[in-house]
UniProtKB/TrEMBL annotation:
UniProt keyword annotation of Phosphoprotein present: no
Subcellular location(s) per record: Cell membrane
Protein family membership: Belongs to the ExbD/TolR family.
Database matches in InterPro entries: ExbD
Protein name (Swiss-Prot/TrEMBL): Biopolymer transporter ExbD
Any one GO BP annotation for this protein: protein transport
Membrane-topology descriptor: Single-pass membrane protein; Single-pass type II membrane protein
Protein keywords: Cell membrane, Membrane, Protein transport, Transmembrane, Transmembrane helix, Transport
Length: 139
């Protein structure tokens, strides 16, 4: 007679099928998920607390209004195309390729309007660009 008790085998947890199922679920979720793109977000542009620098003769200030109109050194630009803006920037630079272009865009200006200013400056050969911000804490 054998009086020794046999110990029951400890159950093994096999994780490989669990991992396989999780990977299948992950792949399914990745393939079936739709990624929505936000085409328009309401963004408030930043403000700066720095003092305004005095205007230097090599600066070309380009203002962009909320409705997409441009003004170069305080004079309104006829039309809204990149070509017209590029011609006005070239004339304002008067051959000075080191002129600094300061983009002063309204908080409600479309991003495309600002990109048009950057493209026009590139076409005019002006590579020094900066952005103006409002002084103070609130726009």
């Amino acid at each position: 007679m054998n009086f020794h008790r046999q110990r029951p085998e400890e159950p093994e947890i096999n994780l490989i099928p669990f991992i396989d199922v999780l990977l299948v679920i992950l792949i399914f979720l990745m393939l079936s998920t739709t990624y929505s793109r936000f085409t328009e977000l309401q963004v408030n542009l930043p403000t700066a607390n720095a003092d305004k620098l005095p205007e230097r003769p090599g600066e070309i200030i380009v203002a962009v209004s909320g409705d997409g109109r441009y003004s170069v050194r305080g004079e309104l630009v006829d039309g809204r195309s990149v070509e017209q803006l590029s011609a006005v920037l070239s004339a304002a630079a008067a051959g000075n390729r080191d002129a600094m272009v300061i983009v002063s865009a309204d908080a409600l200006a479309a991003h495309q309007s600002v990109m048009n200013v950057l493209d026009a400056a590139r076409r005019a050969g002006l590579v020094r660009l900066t952005f103006a911000a409002q002084a103070g804490g609130t726009p």
